[in-house]
């Protein structure tokens, strides 16, 4: 019996022609839909991807947040000095690819000799010395002194960023 003739006889008997489920239009539509969703999702992630901040921008953001806080008691000011030193350590770790996690504040300023200008090292040393006494000896500190230190470090980071940009521009 011919295959085409046999198929026609089946259609006559059952009234329908059997099609496997994987050969139906809805499955292909579903595959196209899922593929479109995946491609759309990855395209959306690619377009909306956040740009990474530079170490300078991260440090300035952290200092800005600390500068905008209200400090109601001395404990908050002491905690702010811990946060400031972590911001500065993180900045130097990311910017200069140095390992400062296990070092004290004064050891950091000693290791920066030759990397940043001497006048900035002296400012850092002065800040680290003052913050050490505030954090661990619980020296009395006012909110205005904290804000001055934040402003000084803010300016210091901007100056370091300018000098690094100048040195990259000259190279």
List the helices and strands and how they pair.
Blueprint: H1 3-14, H2 25-47, H3 55-68, H4 74-96, H5 105-111, H6 118-136, H7 143-170
Describe the protein in words:
It is a single chain. With 171 residues, this protein is mainly alpha-helical. The chain has helices spanning 3-14, 25-47, 55-68, 74-96, 105-111, 118-136, 143-170. It folds into two domains: 3-47; 55-170.
Q: How much of the polypeptide forms β-strand, as a percent range?
A: under 5%
What is the count of distinct domains? 2
The whole-angstrom Rg is 33 Å
Name the shape in a single word.
Answer: elongated
Number of distinct helices: 7
Q: What sequence of helices (H) and strands (E) makes up the elements?
A: HHHHHHH
Class derived from helix and strand content: mainly alpha
Average pLDDT works out at 79
The helix content, as a percent range, equals over 70%
| Termini Cα gap | 86 Å
Report the biggest beta sheet as strand number plus sense, adding barrel if it closes.
none
The count of strands amounts to 0
* Low-confidence region ranges: none
């Amino acid at each position: 019996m011919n295959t085409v003739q046999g198929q026609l006889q089946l259609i006559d008997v059952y009234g329908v022609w059997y099609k496997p489920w994987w050969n139906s239009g809805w499955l292909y539509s579903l595959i196209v839909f899922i593929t479109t969703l995946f491609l759309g999702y990855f395209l959306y992630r690619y377009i909306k991807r956040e740009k990474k901040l530079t170490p300078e921008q991260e440090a300035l953001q952290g200092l800005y947040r600390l500068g905008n806080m209200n400090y109601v008691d001395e404990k908050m000011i002491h905690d702010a000095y811990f946060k400031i030193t972590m911001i500065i350590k993180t900045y130097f770790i990311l910017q200069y690819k140095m390992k400062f996690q296990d070092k004290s504040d004064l050891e950091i300023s000693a290791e920066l000799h030759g990397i940043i200008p001497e006048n900035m090292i002296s400012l850092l040393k002065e800040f680290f010395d003052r913050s050490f006494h505030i954090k661990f000896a619980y020296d009395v500190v006012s909110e205005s002194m904290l804000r001055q230190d934040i402003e000084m470090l803010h300016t210091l980071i901007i100056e370091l960023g300018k000098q690094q940009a100048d040195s990259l521009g000259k190279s």
